Amino acid sequence: MRMMTFKAATSTAAFAKVKAELGEDAVILSNKTITEKGVKSCEIVAAVDSSPVSLGGGKPQRQTKEDYVESALQHGTSWQREWSQIKGQIMQLMKPQMDLDLLSPKQKLAVEYLEREEVNETVLTHIFCSLREDKTRSIVHALETMITTQKFDAVQSPTKFQAFAGPGGSGKTSTLVRLALKEKKQNPRARICLVTADGGRGKGRLVLKHYAELSGLAFREIITRDDFHLLQKEAHQFDTILIDLPGLPNRTNLAEWTALYGLAGCDDLAIHLVLNPFYSPRQFERFMEKYKSEQLASVIWTKLDEACTFGALLNMAFASGLPVSTLSYGSGLKNSIAPATKEMIWRLLFMRKLPNGDIQP
Ligand SMILES: Nc1nc2c(ncn2[C@@H]2O[C@H](COP(=O)(O)OP(=O)(O)OP(=O)(O)O)[C@@H](O)[C@H]2O)c(=O)[nH]1
Ligand SMILES: [Mg+2]
To answer: Which of 349, 356, 359, 350 is CA-nearest to residue 316?
Structure first.
């Protein structure tokens, strides 16, 4: 057993060091906040079984380029990739049966349109099957059950903690600030607390602190799990607590992160996934895996004004089953966000019309 102590400004940074040094199999033995010269930081003690990996024992052999390729082919196919290969093969088998001439001309046109809008094959197959049952069925009817919307209403929500997760730069901090300011405007007496868990990254923290001070909102910081426990203790003072999560390091997934900071066991927490429509299909697959969590409550789509197609909204809704709560379509904090409705999503999909009425080229 090899045991090591790691110190960093935040748990995220300390955890990244654990993974880099001890690898994926490291076990966390303790995780606490320490204060040195008045500055709070995180200390993690982690251990890993140090028995030799090589079956042959002795000195590990130097790997050649061929070894790397061989090893990638042998071990790189995680169950995800295998599943996506199987899915691809099923789709290939389905394709000859997906004869669009079996649909009415109007239905065929709609399916072809959605294909151009980058709706993926899984979703198209589902739509095709639904339309084939009834030649008079409209495309909107077929799509109706595939996507749901749910307004983000933090103050009215029975869930006190609302966290925002998503890839780096997707618009988490801006969305949180926009929603907080909107809530405050609608309900000036609402007791709103803004929380940054983005300690290591100066910008998001400063933005939140600035808007909290400007709008008379409370501001807190989570550096380690102790801070989240403290926040839970004072939660009764607030109507809603909005938490800005950091973009997670490459190898860390949301479940690991929430476990590390003590958020995972909190049943008073909803996490909203902030995404942009223009990521590649492979990236979406990766995000599905990285951000998988039972605490996920909705998807927030941002940067709609920078997208050319909107098929991703449908693909994600179908794959995750999550409702869409909010749409954002501008870089400013004002007039750039709207609660999602199905009509807005149909207009995005079929007319490329943003919630403010602008048409995307
Ligand atoms: N065009 C456009 N820009 C947006 C939108 N939402 C956010 N942005 C911009 O995207 C950039 C990143 O936004 P942030 O809110 O800082 O993103 P983040 O996810 O918090 O980023 P990290 O904390 O670094 O992971 C900023 O310049 C925002 O102004 C949007 O809907 N449209
Ligand atoms: Mg941020």
So the answer is: 349
